[in-house]
Design brief:
The chain is of the alpha/beta class. The protein has five helices and eight strands, in the order βαβαββαβββαβα. The longest helix has 14 residues, at 74-87.
């Protein structure tokens, strides 16, 4: 396995919504020797820090909705994802941050329009693009379990 697209917060970049990171040394140790290509669609589109957003099932499909303004923030995240994968066609593996509305592979929360939780196993917008392109896609915690098991 060569190039790994990885949520930038996991490699220690300060890009989480609250201006912190999610550096995961155990994960980085398992990925030693692989070329890591960090990404953060939310930091790129909205800066850091920024208001949180949630995935919401709407008549138009699953959208990322700002918790502060109610605005649909999906388009810049989806555009970033498409451009990222177009720029990096050699990516072999996608590792996303668990529970992220952008990067979570199978652990993001999705709500209905009344903000009732309908799934805790949703796919974030960037992870969805990775899956559409046929990439192996895992949440960071899932990757560690597979490599430790």
């Amino acid at each position: 396995m060569g190039k790994v697209a990885i949520s930038a917060c996991l490699v220690g970049e300060v890009c989480r919504y609250d201006g912190t990171d999610n550096r995961n040394d155990a994960l980085l140790e398992k990925l030693e020797g692989m070329e890591l290509v960090p990404f953060c669609p939310e930091d790129f589109a909205f800066g850091t820090p920024r208001p949180t957003m949630d995935l919401v099932e709407t008549p138009e499909g699953v959208r990322a909705i700002s918790n502060a303004s109610g605005e649909d923030l999906s388009t810049p995240v989806e555009q970033y994802a498409k451009e990222f994968f177009d720029k990096h066609p050699e990516i072999d593996l996608f590792i996303g941050k668990d529970r992220s509305p952008s990067c979570g592979v199978c652990t993001a929360k999705c709500y209905d329009e009344e903000k009732t939780l309908i799934s805790a196993e949703a796919t974030g917008l960037m992870a969805a693009e990775a899956k559409r392109r046929g990439l192996e896609a895992l949440d960071a915690e899932q990757y560690l379990i597979q490599k430790n098991g």
